[in-house]
Amino acid sequence: MLCAAAFFRNKGKSVVTEKEFLMGISMDFRWMPYSDAKELLSALLAAKVVSRDGDLVRPTFNVSDADIPAAYRPPADIIRTAALSKVTDSMNFPQMIAFAEKHGMKKKDFISASNALQKRLGISPEAAGLIVLRDGGTDISEIAERVYAGISEG
Length: 154
Prior knowledge:
By secondary structure, the protein is mostly helical. It folds into two domains: 2-84, no CATH class; 93-153, no CATH class. 56% of the residues lie in helices and 6% in strands. It has a three-stranded antiparallel beta sheet. Helix 6 packs across helix 7 (125-135). The longest helix has 15 residues, at 107-121. The chain is elongated.
């Protein structure tokens, strides 16, 4: 929430376009790479810290109530922290793609292998992705419970 409050306060706006949010986080403030800003936005939306109405993003709280330190810069683990604070603790396939890329798998290879396994076994994309990650040597202990939660919800 502090990151979102700092962003909106620094921008001096109560609503921005999604592109303005992503570019602001990555280019204007230089807080993180664009791809990480996308992950952050997804996590903030899932945690209901910000809401999206079409292409517009706005905070779900009163920004002026936040106590933001001078020269605020989000911590390096902000995306992981935001992701763990999601209202739903499940993980969807796009999040798994990002996880696979972060752990050295090529996006194209991960999606291709997951799709093939999903079709062959008749399982969900998330279950297939988890198997592909595990079989590829990635430690899945960090995400396994979240994937299982998403599979059991659906």
